[in-house]
Amino acid sequence: MTDSSAHQPMIAADGLPLKKSLARSLRREKTRALLLIAPLLVFVLLTFIFPIGSMLFRSVENEIVSNILPRTVVELENWDATLGELPDEAVYAAFVADFVAAVEEKNHTRLGSRLNYESSGMSSLFRKSGRKVAKWNPETDGPFKEKLIKADKGWGDPETWAIIKTHSGKYTNGYFLNAVDMQRTPNGIEAQPESKQILIKLFLRTVKMSLIITASCILLGYPVAWILANLPSRSANLLMILVLLPFWTSLLVRTSAWKVMLQNQGVINDTLVWLGLVSNDARLEIINNQFGTIVAMTHILLPFMILPMYSVMQTIPPTYLRAAKSLGATNWTAFWRVYFPQSIPGIGAGSILVFILAIGYYITPEIVGGTEGVFISNRIAYHISSSLNWGLAAALGAILLVVVLVLYWAYDKIVGIDNVKLG
Amino acid sequence: MKFTKTLLATTALTVAAGAALAQDMTIVSWGGAYSKSQLKAYHEPYSAKTGVNIINDDSSAEAVAKLRAMNEAGNITWDVVDVVASDAIRLCDEGLALEIDPATQLAPAPDGTSAADDFGDLMVSSCFIPQIVYSTTFGYRTDLVGDTPPSDVCAVFDLETYPGKRSLEKRPINNMEWALLCDGVAKSDVYDVLATDEGQNQALAKLDTIKDSVVWWSAGADTPQLLADGEVIMGSTYNGRLFSVIEEQKQPVAMLWDAQVFDLDGWIIPAGLSEERKQRALDYIYFATDTQRLADQAKYISYGPARASSAPLVGKHADLGIEMAPHMPTDPNNAKNTFLYNYEFWADYRDDIDAKFQAWLAQ
After folding, report:
1. B229 touches chain A (CB under 8 A)
2. Chain A residue whose CA is closest to B93
3. Facing A123 at nearest CB: one of B165, B229, B347
4. Which residues from B are below 8 Å from A202, CB to CB?
């Protein structure tokens, strides 16, 4: 009996080899599971992945230049921007033909705005020239080089044509370069002037401060979660309501309340001066700096840390601690070597939540952060709402997404993502 | 039979309700006291006159980005939008706002002056209908500035005579001009100097001398709160907010009008509306921007009407009963030394100088 099974494959009850039968039933399970989640998958694809994907795609898309100035872009390929000379008449003639068509379509100013992100002055150049050039006839009114330069001397500057040529490709890496404090020039990739280099600093500051906020949430949240998990359920429920209460108040109200507490003339400083611990002239600066941001953000994100930790701690049987103590462990050893490792999945889940939320926040840093506590998300918000440079905003967002994914991968390697539990 | 009757009745009601809904207009503004003044002076009289129901949306702070997104989606849900002039120029450049012909689409003044002449230089864009002139200016705590109250804007940079914190807006606009003015640049040269790298560095160097004493604000309500709490001894904000702090809340604050920077707030009509909605929006604009209406708004808020013909009609505050004319930024006593926001300059240089300003702030 023992050696016959080594020569023949196992047969299942319906006559097929066991391996095939097993594979088929596994496949059936998988298809059934897929069909069950199919509606959710379609929903997420349509409302989440496609829109965000299309927004992130703007970080490389640059069709506006070649769509509005098709002939000019072709002619400019023959011109060398690094020599510092003006392009020849063919380029000017092609440009006037394109520009007159653009003025009629009324999208020349849109192109001017786009190019203005690369060089200040382009938007008014296009706007003013539009009024003058609108009446020209591209077929009969040439030659155009002298005429265009007379209409506006900006067209007599090789810089203007260099900018158009450098940013004429359908897809561009210019936005991503800008996002890391570099720029695209006719001579290749160069660093931005030092007076404008801020984005890398903000990225580093955002990640660093989010890590600090996560750590302080762990330190402050763990004891609370422990108490919640170990108290009898009536008191635990009451405390739970107190933990959840901030969720039910508006974010702006909470942030403004911190302003009242932390200001120079605020509650904390007034109390310290009254107690005599701080002199009236040397009041503590605890707002409009990084400290204020950390305090306010920790307060706001604490429930997100406490709840996962609490639900994991609830599943840890209290008998293990008692068993450890009965085997001779001190209180600390029992906690550190028996209880704490079992609560790590909860810490992991809470940290991921808190970190990802902290990295994306911009309202609270805006209100209490002053200039030191500003996050990269403030710049993204500025570029979306005010400057309308959606390409740069998308590039910054894409980089932020990649940073978070890299940290997630690192977390997986160190702690293991299977070690994350929500309860 | 009963079922058919019910079905017919419900269909008739839905059609009627649909028709009633077609008489709605969505007008976007900034919220707060400003929206309230527009409600009293424009929306309520217009609804009474024509029966159109006006829905208010307070999204003007995000108007530019939202209009661009609406345009790309092909579904414009707003009919008339209140924006500041620089936003209107941006929207006009992007093709998102309708071009307006003042001769046919705006009301002439009662004495016959054409709308274009009545608005004068304030028609800064062909898509923009100015409504009010507001200014960004300084207020100071009368009890915290010592014996000599400040009389010109350079007091902000004078840390010896006026020690204490100031609050300035967290953006370069206005701050750079004031810094150059107080660093010895002549008023007529300010924008030429600011267009150069050296000029921008000069302005940032001057701001550097007070950087440690500045609290930076991003919302108009910040400075009044900071002044009331005594966190700062002087700070810049919109003049209407200071009016509210001084006259309505009775805080010990006074206005420093010197070198106030005028800015315009007004209407645009989004491009791409259906013909019916466009006509209704134009009808509303014709009514809401005529001489009497603009003067009416001044009864509720201390912003100056943009029309020259409205100025003599400005009367008293509707609730407080005080004369509004002395509180207007355009009043001759307050307007001895003013800047008009240089739209062309900032449309070109804003992104560039903002990057430098934010980098300087972050140091």
Report:
1. yes
2. A109
3. B347
4. 362
* Cross-strand partners of B238: B136
CA A292 to chain B, closest CA, distance in angstroms equals: 14
B228 touching A (Cβ < 8 Å): no
- This prediction's pTM: 0.85
Q: Does CATH place domain B136-263+335-361 in 3.40.190.10?
A: yes
* Contacts with A374 from chain B: Cβ below 8 Å: 358, 361-362
Handedness of CA A237, A239, A241, A247 (dihedral sign): negative
Each domain of chain A, given as residue ranges in start order, spans: 63-196, 199-419
Segments making up each domain of chain B, as ranges: 2-133+265-327, 136-263+335-361
A113·B94 Cβ contact <8 A: yes
Do the domains B2-133+265-327 and B136-263+335-361 sit in the same CATH topology, yes or no? Answer: yes
Complex confidence, ipTM = 0.83
- Which chain B residues are closer than 8 Å to A386 by Cβ? 64
Among residues A18, A14, A170, A161, the alpha carbon closest in space to that of A95 is found at: A161
Mutate which: B62, B68, B93, B353, vs A, most A CBs within 10 A: B93
Q: Nearest CA to CA, how far is B344 from chain A (Å)?
A: 7
Task: Return the HEC string of chain B.
Answer: CHHHHHHHHHHHHHHHHHHHHCCEEEEECCCHHHHHHHHHHHHHHHHHHHCCEEEEECCHHHHHHHHHHHHHHCCCCCCEEEEEHHHHHHHHHCCCECCCCHHHHCCCCCCCCCHHHHHHHHCCCCCCEEEEEEEEEEEEECCCCCCCCCCCHHHHHCCCCCCCCEEEECCCCCHHHHHHHCCCCCHHHHHHHHCCHHHHHHHHHHHHCCHHHEEEECCCCHHHHHHHHCCCCEEEEEHHHHHHHHHHCCCCEEEEEEEEEEEEEEEECECCCCHHHHHHHHHHHHHHCCHHHHHHHCCCCCCEECCHHHHHHCCECCCCCCECHHHCCCCCCCCCCEEECCHHHHHHHHHHHHHHHHHHHCC
Listed in sequence order, the DSSP H helices in A231-362 are: 233-244, 251-262, 267-275, 290-313, 318-326, 331-334, 340-360
Q: Considering only CA atoms, give the Rg of chain A.
A: 32
pLDDT band per the 50, 70, 90 thresholds, residue A423: low
- Domain A199-419: give its CATH code: 1.10.3720.10
Q: Which positions in chain B touch A201 (Cβ < 8 Å)? A: 362
CA distance, residue A390 to nearest chain B CA (Å):
9
Per-residue pLDDT of chain B in tens (363 residues, 90 and over written 9): 667 676 666 665 555 554 445 589 999 999 888 898 999 999 999 999 999 999 999 989 889 999 999 998 899 999 999 999 999 998 998 889 999 999 899 999 998 889 899 998 889 999 999 999 999 999 999 999 888 999 999 999 999 999 999 999 999 999 999 999 999 999 999 999 999 999 999 999 999 999 999 999 988 888 999 999 999 999 999 999 899 899 988 999 999 999 999 999 999 999 999 999 999 999 999 999 999 999 999 989 899 999 989 888 888 888 888 888 889 988 888 888 888 889 989 988 988 899 899 889 988
DSSP 8-state code for residue A17: B
Nearest residue of B to residue A196, measured between CA atoms: B356
* CATH architecture of the domain with residue range B2-133+265-327: 3-Layer(aba) Sandwich (3.40)
pLDDT value for A228: 92
